[in-house]
Design brief:
heterodimer, A: 114 residues, mainly beta, seven-stranded mixed beta sheet, four-stranded antiparallel beta sheet, 50% strand, globular, B: 112 residues, six-stranded mixed beta sheet, five-stranded antiparallel beta sheet, 11 strands, 0% helix
Chain lengths: 114, 112
């Protein structure tokens, strides 16, 4: 069964450093998403991406964040200058069609900012 | 009022029991509704979409009530493996777009 993959599974970084989280969505999917989940809290939408551009973003997704699809398979989330409060699990998801359709999540990257 | 609300539980039920969860949403223009399950420190896994007509998948039945602005999930004949957190997701309109919005989840513990 096709699945979304994410690397790394755990990333530790120092405050102020840049991090790039990587995702490989399901191959025939067209819509891609990033979410975060701070420990013990709910899953929060960050951004959706379609046709090589951002289609929706939340207020969390400020100038510190950017997304890119650098090639035909990878989808990345970059955090430019990490803060302690960026520590969370980051999930990538993809959907075969638009947001009205089911999304399939990757296993997540646990980001720890020290 | 929160956009998407769920009773956090935990719901503690014996194997074989029937259990139901509700999830309310505040914006009547919301579209597209889903139930996911999440095991501890794992990713959300899609359980089912929710339609006004109701839909069933094995032991699971989901229903949407637009008039009262809630969705429900019914689990029949609970199994130990059903123990998880159940998340509802509602696409809420915001500035011309729709934002997938998760509830905090309802914890289910099925015991022998």
């Amino acid at each position: 069964e096709p699945e979304v993959t994410q690397t790394p599974s755990h990333q530790v970084t120092q405050m102020g450093q840049e991090v790039i989280l990587r995702c490989v969505p399901i191959s025939n999917h067209l819509y891609f998403y990033w979410y975060r989940q701070i420990l013990g809290q709910k899953v929060e939408f960050l951004v959706s991406f379609y046709n090589n551009e951002i289609s929706e973003k939340s207020e969390i997704f400020d100038d510190q964040f950017s997304v890119e699809r650098p090639d035909g398979s990878n989808f990345t989330l970059k955090i430019r200058s990490t803060k302690l409060e960026d520590s969370a699990m980051y999930f990538c998801a993809s959907s075969g069609r638009d947001r009205s359709y089911e999304q399939y999540f990757g296993p997540g990257t646990r980001l720890t900012v020290t | 009022r929160k956009e998407v609300e769920q009773d956090p539980g935990p719901f503690n039920v014996p194997e074989g029991a029937t259990v139901a969860f509700n999830c309310t949403y505040s914006n009547s223009a919301s579209q597209s509704f889903f139930w996911y399950r999440q095991d501890c420190r794992k990713e959300p896994k899609l359980l089912m979409s929710v339609y006004s007509s109701g839909n069933e998948d094995g032991r699971f039945t989901a229903q949407l009530n637009r008039a009262s602005q809630y969705i429900s999930l019914l689990i029949r004949d609970s199994k130990l493996s059903d123990s998880a957190t159940y998340l509802c997701v509602v696409n809420i309109p915001l500035g011309g777009s729709y934002i997938p919005t998760f509830g905090r989840g309802t914890s289910l513990i099925v015991h022998p």
